[in-house]
Amino acid sequence: MFSKIYWLYNLAPSLPLQEDFVYHWKAITHYYIETSDDKAPVTDTNIPSHLEQMLNILTQEERERESGETGPCMEYLLHHKILETLYTLGKADCPPGMKQQVLSFYTKLLGRIRQPLLPHINVHRPVQKLVRLCGEVLAAPTGNEEIQFLCTVCAKLKQDPYLVNFFLENKNKKLEAAKDGGADLVKKDPSSPDTGQNQKQNPSLVTSALKEAAACQATSPGEASPSSVHTTLPNSDNYNLVSSLLNLTKSPVSLIIVIIRMMIYFLLPAKSSQKYYECLLHCLRSMELLDVYNLKEDAVAFAGKRALISFLSWLDYCDQLIKEAQKTAAAVLARAVRERFFVAIMEPQLMQTSEVGILTSTALLNRIIRQVTSEALLQETIYFLLGEETGPETPAGITQHPLRHRLIEHCDHLSDEISIMTLRLFEHLLQKPCQHILQNLVLRCLEERNYMENKQPEEREEREHMENGQPHDAVDLEEDPLFSDLSPDNRLSSPDWLSCSPPPSTEHTKPDGKTEVHKIVNSFLCLVPDEAKSSYQVEGTGYDTYLRDAHRQFRDYCGVCQRWDWRSSPKPFEKCNLDSPFFEGHFLKVLFDRMGRILDQPYDVNLQVTSVLSKLSLLPHAHLHEYLLDPYINLAPGCRSLFSVIVRVVGDLMLRTHRIPDFTPKLLLVRKRLLGLEPEGMSVDHVTLLEGVIVLEEFCKELAAIAFVKFHASTSTSP
């Protein structure tokens, strides 16, 4: 009978849009009155066709009217609460498959109609209710439709951020729900989804919906104002939209998880309430580690790969979420990650005594540091690792922040693997765009320049071995073409930050300062005696090979540090507290201690120690440059600098080289083996010392290159 009526309708003349629209809606409601078979699937009825025709009519009506004007068909839909009735039918899933049809209708309606619909109470209220139905059943047949519907809602909220407030509704307000026809009486909390069993249909819901539909159809359209906009914002602690999205993240299908993540990320409006970000905080607390890996790979992967990839995926999601959030909200979210992950989970792992556990947790922390890019999350991560202290460090206060103390101590651990991994961690930290890292680790100890003797130094004499020429590998670097075309963007903003180099001498200094920079460069190049050098015997290992890398790295550091409030020149002596005792700081102390043992440490450890020190030397800070790269500063009694540490190492080297027969040939052989120029053959005695000498020579050349590049960058900005 129903099919016959629909067939006859198609042959009838065209009706006005409103009559046509009402016809299709009444045809749907009459189905529930006339049919006795409620088990037949909805696809065997004409309901899908009628719903599609209603959508087409609404779209056509909007197209024929002026922008923003509500037509009679839309007025009818709003006034007669058609969406409320459809929600009730979809919830009951009567006939079977009706929920899919309702989800699809809502999705197309919100997507096709250009005028804002969500502000209407008779739209956003049923949309809220339908949102709560999403994610109740995992791997449900309506999964695709639920995702499409939620994605459309998220897009609308992104387009009009103020609409977010309509979705901060308390789903436990049962009294209010009862007034809406009983459609909100959901006994089960959507945040605890079903595991796959379909809910039984509730005939009372269908009856209620039909009664409401009949009442609406009997009401004159003029008795209510469908264009009224709901302006009362709910006050609650429940977030229906995010709860539904979170439920869907528990799906076993990885693609769905990724899509839902993108949807939650898409919910971030430029201007949104703090309350809504508390909702996203709930997301961070509740979301499980998401699986986006290939199960087939697990057969050949290391143990724990599955959990690791899931965690890194979750971390990347949080990082991006925080990066796009409003500043205040980003701080709240980042703080939550710090407290609930770093403090609660990571800290016990980093503080343990098991070497395997320390190595694993430090390796993970390394990966986290490299991955985090959002400013708020990076800051909270740094505060977690190093603390928030910026005042002068004292020997008695190095344990004030236990985790910081433990990590720095791990740089000098008995296990070489732990030492290397922790040194690598600090190297990554030094490259992050966070001023607090450098202030906390190094700069706060150098602020008063009390590493220098408390008197004005007299004019310094050149070293005796530098009076009559230069070493064989020193070159006229001022003419190097690498530096002849530096653009202003690649130079320092201030020309005098490097003024801590030796004071000009009227006898020996050329007008361009060339003599002074060569004094510094050659001081490093001449530290290692000729008999302990081997690079000149291997092609392509000269000092100039470090210049290009130093130039690139220094340029990158300048770009990062330019926005920081750093000294462009050293603090004047008269303003420094030179009488206060100098403490180099826990971090530099450990680095200098390890540097002092370079001749007795494994090759890989030495490479990592010198790598961290070179990163520090590249930083464009006046005090750091003075302390690490100026060989001529008068150190206060009991103080040491990087140059003085290397001098002591060289002194030890001179005593030990004479005790090793065939020292120079063995040194050259070890260098060639390290470069892959010689195959591994018979073992060489004293190999640790020989490798240490090679690293020492290369490090001195690197420091010389850094000193020259920084000097040139400084003088290039001079008027």
Distance from first to last alpha carbon: 95 Å
Q: Give the biggest sheet.
A: none
Compute the CA-based radius of gyration: 36 Å
Give the mean pLDDT.
Answer: 77
The count of β-strands is 0
Structural class: mainly alpha
Could you name the ranges where pLDDT drops below 50 across 5 or more consecutive residues?
1-13, 170-203, 216-237, 285-296, 457-514
**Oligomerization category of the chains in this entry:** single chain
User: Secondary-structure element order, as H and E?
Assistant: HHHHHHHHHHHHHHHHHHHHHHHHHHHH
H/I helix tally = 28
**Secondary structure: helix percent:** 55-70%
Q: What gross morphology would you assign?
A: elongated
Biased composition (Basic and acidic residues): 181-191, 454-467
Biased composition (Polar residues): 192-204
Family: Belongs to the FHIP family.
Protein name: Family with sequence similarity 160 member B1
Topology:
Blueprint (H helix, E strand, L loop, with lengths): L1 H10 L5 H18 L12 H18 L7 H8 L2 H11 L5 H15 L8 H13 L9 H17 L14 H6 L23 H15 L22 H10 L4 H13 L7 H13 L18 H20 L2 H24 L4 H17 L3 H12 L15 H9 L5 H15 L4 H12 L67 H12 L19 H17 L24 H11 L6 H16 L3 H8 L12 H16 L5 H12 L12 H30 L3
